[in-house]
Amino acid sequence: MVVTDEHENDIEPEDAGLAPEWPVMTTVTITLTEVNGKTKLVLHQTVAEALAKKTGAHPSWIEMLNRLDRML
Q1: Is this model's pTM higher than 0.90 or not?
Q2: 8-44 as b/e, with b when 16 or more CB fall inside 10 Å?
């Protein structure tokens, strides 16, 4: 995952308001498994959890997944 602007141009993380230590590229892995007839989603992003929480990425993922849950 690369940080982009509204026109999908690659930009520096700092230009998007992220912390200076945010990596230019991260990998997001989503694993879906069935558990007792329900779907369990596990999301992993290759950035430290503390940094994700500091920059707002962590709560943003939770908000997006909660919206998806409401839509389904």
Answers
A1: no
A2: eeeeebeeeebeeebbeebeeeeeeeeeeeeeeeeee
